[in-house]
Amino acid sequence: MTTVSPVQAETCLYGANVSGGEFGKAEDKPGTYGVTHQFPSAATYEYLASKGMNAVRLPFQWERIQPELFGPFEPEELGHLTKSIAEARANGLTVILNPHNYGKYYGRAIGSRDVPVDALADFWGRLASLYPGKTDIVFGLMNEPVDLTARTWLDASNRAIRAIRDTGADNLVLVPGTIWTGSSHWFDQQDGGSNAEVMLAVTDPAENFAIEVHQYLDADFSGTGTSCSRTADALAALKRFSGWLETFGYKGFLGEFGGSQNRSCLDGVKEIATFINRRPDIWIGWTIWAAGEWWGAYPYSIQPEDGIDRPQMATLIPFLESDHSSRRDCQYPER
Fold it and tell me: In angstroms, rounded to a whole number, what is the distance separating the alpha carbons of residues 15 and 27?
């Protein structure tokens, strides 16, 4: 099978997820800004940029932005989101917009009777119309779809991409798979076919998309363990996924990876960053999990403590240092 190249230009994005806007339990929605959820401050964006990062993945909750399916956006919540986007861009950061919903809306899966696949297309058509043609705004369709088949997700993805392009926006789109879009699950069989089989049918009139996967290093690849006992297995999964990208002419993006301050995790983060940085021909970058003022003592946090870098950030800095400041320059040194 042959495919066209799905990314118009090389794009090298190296940065962090910036959490806070997606916080709050389902019963808290919409919640109260500053109490249940809050986007990171401008200072966080300034800090990440000062370390050499050029991108942030910005999670938020779909329901807060669009309280009713096919309805208008909620002005106050949209205002908080657009303010945070502006602050990131002011620091030279590309912003990856990320509805952090796991393929669901108020807990109901896309493709169910309550959440038709066209609902995601409606949402993305409205959001894309705010940032058409902005090269420093990337549209990440969804965080970690789960509890729906790859076939259903493909349909929702293709409709969302079409809605984005119908606005005139040719921005880069990141398309995940199902089963939390784990590279370790990319080839797992499910009803209707695996991600590896089904997602070959992603259709983008602008031919400007990449496939997003996540990969953690702990015992079950969930990103909840404080030690990273499966780095070798995680790398094997990424290498197999890389082979799929190479075979079919796709580009990939590692939207989440990370670990605690445990030595096994710091070593694992270094190995993952090394692997991705060495393959700019098929990988357009990565964003580590996660920055944000609200994390506190969370083990995976890369937010500085009292102005001091966390060990995870110190591990990443060599991969961010370069004489090439452009986010479209992939010539980062091997480490």
Answer: 31
328 found inside a domain: no
CB-CB contact of 152 with 111 (8 Å): yes
Let me know if residue 79 belongs to a domain: yes
Q: Does residue 334 lie within any of the structural domains?
A: no
Number of domains in the chain: 1
Q: If DSSP codes are grouped into helix, strand and coil, which group holds residue 48?
A: helix
Can you tell me the distance from the alpha carbon of 304 to that of 266, in angstroms, rounded to the nearest whole number? 16
Domain of residue 316, residue span: 13-320
Q: ∠ CA(43), CA(255), CA(158), 5° rounding?
A: 120
Q: Is the pTM of this model over 0.85?
A: yes
CATH of the domain at 26: 3.20.20.80
Residues labelled as active-site residues? 144, 256
* Per-position pLDDT tens, the chain of length 335: 334 456 644 579 999 999 999 999 766 778 999 999 999 999 999 999 999 999 999 999 999 999 999 999 999 999 999 999 999 999 999 999 999 999 999 999 999 999 999 999 999 999 999 999 999 999 999 999 999 999 999 999 999 999 999 999 999 999 999 999 999 999 999 999 999 999 999 999 999 999 999 999 999 999 999 999 999 999 999 999 999 999 999 999 999 999 999 999 999 999 999 999 999 999 999 999 999 999 999 999 999 999 999 999 999 999 997 543 344 445 443 33
Residue 187 included in any domain? yes
Cα-based distances in Å from 90 to 94, 95, 97, 279: 10, 11, 16, 29
Instruction: Give residue 177's Cα distance to chain centre.
Output: 12
